[in-house]
Amino acid sequence: MTKRRRFTDDFKARIALEALRGDKTVQEIASKHKVHPNQVSTWKRQAIDGLADVFSTGPERVTADHEAEIHDLHAKVGQLMDLSRFCAAPGARLSHLSFEGDRAFPAQC
Questions:
Q1: Has this prediction a pTM greater than 0.70?
Q2: Strand, helix or coil at 67?
Q3: Which helix (H) or strand (E) holds 97?
Q4: Who wins on pLDDT, 1 or 77?
């Protein structure tokens, strides 16, 4: 039984770039590198599809991701503060807490 071949990202990129140049046919590229022609076509298509991401990973995308993470962290801090206030209240009983997912809150009567 033969093992599956694993190709590095660098190898895939070189093959895709060679296919995008158009100097050789997909069949010629595949036989030169000993891979299946369908694999060359798949890597070429993935390179074309991912080309827009190369130019869109600028500061705008990083800022949007950062702001979303900050929003999520602020929401989590608010939940934890509410829980600590509830537990610190006189006569608070922890048996009334309901845990669903990552949220802890007092159970409704």
A1: no
A2: helix
A3: strand 97-100
A4: 77
